[in-house]
Amino acid sequence: MKNAIVLGLTLLLTAFTNAPVEIPQKPEDISPLLVGETIPDVNIMNLNGTVMNLKAEVAKKPTLLVFYRGGWCPFCTKQLAELRTLEPNLTRMGYQLLAVSTDSPDNLKASMDKEKLNYTLLSDADLTAAKAFGLAFKASPNYAATLEKGSGGKNVDNLLPVPAVFLLDKQGVIKFEYINPNMKERISAKLLTAAAEAMM
After folding, report:
1. Nearest to 119, CA basis, from 64, 165, 191
2. Which residue among 2, 108, 176, 177 is buried most deeply as judged by most CB within 10 Å?
3. Between the CA atoms of 30, 23, 37 and 190, what dihedral angle is there, to the nearest 10 degrees?
4. Which residues in the chain land under pLDDT 70?
């Protein structure tokens, strides 16, 4: 009887552990990682389509990690351009800047050229990282064609990340974050610089 109870509890825990994560229908309903938590162990792709481990990359130096929707989003391209102006100062402070989107590596290259960026863009085309960070939500059907094209056909579930900014130490612990379900609202360069300085 005792063994049956233990087996039953084990099966129940396994079922919960392996249960698919429910993706929110609205950006307001996401449950992102919080300050003090450690980022998940996920893989993403660089510009060349090479798979790389995000945690291993963050372990190299303190990191400003940005999640954005894609190079097709005007609010995102404005943010990328503003980050370009901040990047030299962040580098002087000892940070690296990583920006992650739903774009395929080829579309990342187009954004790099168009916006004249020197920092690192990374592809999360299937939103594995966005889901693990608790940022993914179900996009409106109106986005389906854009997301399919932008992701190189990998965004099959029509998902978007809520734009987010994380300041991380080398252990991947979140020291500061800015996450706003209103995709038109992005953190100002002044506030982001102040937060980066405070963390050093």
Report:
1. 64
2. 108
3. -40
4. 1-21
Give the phi and the psi of residue 43 in degrees, each rounded to 5.
-105, 145
DSSP 19: S
Average pLDDT, the chain: 90
Location of structure tokens 């920006």: 99
- For residue 16 the two structure tokens come to 């919960």
CA distance 122 to 133: 15
Q: What pTM, to 2 d.p., does this model score?
A: 0.89
53 three-state secondary structure: strand
Strand partners, 167: 64, 176
Scan for tokens 């940005």, then name that residue. 66
Token duo for residue 10: 């084990």
Helix (H) or strand (E) holding 92: helix 74-92
